[in-house]
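fyi for ur records
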Amino acid sequence: MKTTKRQSVKIPPFEAVGVVCAQSIGEPGTQMTMRTFHYAGVAEHVPTGLPRLIEIVDAKKEPKKAIIDIYLKSSYARSRADAEKVAKELASVFVSDVADVEDDLETLTIKVIYNEKDGKAQGVSYSALRKALEESFPGDVKSSEPELMLRPAKETKVAKTGEKKEKKITAKSVRKLTQKVRDTLVRGVRGIHKAVVIKGGEDYFVRAGGFNVLGACLNPAVDQKRIYTNNIKEIERIYGVEAARNAIVREIKDVMDMQKLFVDIRHIMLIADAMTYSGYVKSIGRHGLSGEKVGVLGRAAFEETIKHLINASAFAEEEKLIGVTENIIVGQTVPVGTGKIKLVMKTTKKK
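which gave:
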């Protein structure tokens, strides 16, 4: 019988797909570089190669250097000037970027001195700085250009009896407020910084450091359907586990392609499926998939051997020898491939 092309790529029954997948990604992984990659314009070294692969499979809450690609609506994407205007609107500028913030603990006040040179470079005027501070600290700001004075208002605390007590302003509360003033957002989206315009094909798009998908989507120029970040947990939080699975496949594929290592996409898809089948992104390691294996010996063979064996003996766990590792430990045939098939022969009785 002639096999078609479609049949020749089918996986035979009981194939050890997990082992083949681990080998197919693990072997090229040994040839990966440890260097980081400098993304044009975004002044950060984004990890690629082995460090990035480890970051993905460990399901880190945040990548070491998160980046976000913000695609624009066609009316803004054609012109570089329009795209740069949007990039300026998105990049976050804090009070500390355009002014010097000092606290005076004698008079219990905070001085904000506007720096004209930095302000012009960031495109933030004195009035924009004053407006941002007045919105964040209403009633506390007195202005006399180029300075702004903040005098913290006395807090009122409601006691258990119901009467209102005024809380005294202390040097400690002024220090705390000084840090709050420094971190006050004057313009842009919190979590997005160093935005640059890049040409991709015919259109321009914005690439920035950090991530804040929802914040970026509020800008009317942003095409909400085509926004992307390399932070897989952020994608899972906003778009759900299916989108996170696709992001894992894309990120691992990008790492491999950048290193000129060619791995069949189905191996990468198997890893992504294993990490997300439970409904949320799990790491591959002792705190994730390997630590949740069914067999006691399978868990013990990976890491924290004594912990798993003591727990198993304390709670009388049963080892059913269904995994690969467990059977290797006891010296049995591994129940995958041909080891899964048992032949029963029917003998005929002699007359």
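Residues 241-258 form the longest helix (18 residues). thats all i got for now
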